[in-house]
Amino acid sequence: MNNPVVIIGAGLSGLRTASLLTEKGIDCRVLEARDRIGGRALSASVPNRPDLGRFDLGPTWFWPQYEPQMAALVKELDLETFTQHNDGDMLVERFQIKPPERCVLQENMDERGVRLTGGIQSLIDALAESLPPETIKLQIRAKKIRMDEDGNVTVEAEQANGAVEHLPAAAVILALPPRLVARHIEFAPSLPSDLLADIAEKPTWMGSQAKAVAVYDTPFWRKSGLSGLVLSSAGPMQEIYDASPADGAGALFGFFGIPAEVREQMGQEKVIRLVESQLVKLFGKEAENPLAILYKDWASDSETAVEEDSSPFKNYSSYGQPPAAGSWDEKVVFAGTETNAQFSGHLEGALQSAEQAVFKVVQSNS
């Protein structure tokens, strides 16, 4: 290949694509609109307290017994793992005006998820460190992809200062949510209409969700025999889990039952106050005054979701590879967790889609 493969998106799929191409001796560049790598893989620290660890505001765990690519990559990168803590009773919150019910948690130990010490960000960082310097370019947004009559491809990208770059590409791998491609990237000539319709209808995983993590000095709920697991129909969080590191600090994270539009109307400050009140109701006075509540609303992140993603989705069958790309076939390849039918929404899906994209690019250029 005379030109590098250009990868758009520096999430897990994009970075894994880059590492696989690099292993094969194929030059590549990764373009990322954000000022950070990771995409929806995001681990945050409490401000001024990095000693407490990092807490996942995106994906949190994986299942090595079912997800072979993820298990193999974690082993290859020599990352430390620990088993998700679920020991103890769970709480069920059915009504706002009544206390939660305590239930014995029936669980198969072999089915527990596994987490990474240092959060999922440790996987992202390790992949980035495996790449040659200058492979990743941050704060540069792909705006247009052109192909001339001879099949030569150029990516037009805009830097944060407004300067425009034109990058010749042997092929382009689109490792970002398909709806972002449909909404924000222009193609000349145009992509086939059935492909455009397909990617415009693929819901962005986590695109309607928000996640909050309350951090404490210790996982105090465990001493009273609670697992930290809560199922709630009273809200605002409808699922809560123990998010504590392997040792040291305690943490509880939850997914919201409040729709994205309502969260936006409330504002972050009010949403966090509701989270605090719910945790006190569930876990008592020790849940008051957490060291911090980390919050990420993915629905309001324009680098993740579009307006159509705000509504919860049920059409899982739309996930998988888009239709053939017509004249763009072999020049434009889709990756990302939404393009993997079997493990869509999982880290495993992002990794398997990366392998599939690399295989297609190598085959078409061999």
TrEMBL record:
Q: Where is the signal peptide?
A: none
GO molecular function ontology, one term from the record: oxidoreductase activity
Query: Which Gene3D superfamilies does this UniProt record tie to the protein?
Result: FAD/NAD(P)-binding domain
In terms of Pfam families, this protein maps to: Amino_oxidase (PF01593), NAD_binding_8 (PF13450)
Positions of the Amine oxidase domain:
109-358
Instruction: Give the top-rank taxon of the lineage listed in the UniProt record for this protein.
Output: Bacteria
Looking up InterPro entries in the UniProt record yields: Amino_oxidase, FAD/NAD-bd_sf, Flavin_MAO
Provide the family line.
Belongs to the flavin monoamine oxidase family.
Name of the protein in question? Putrescine oxidase
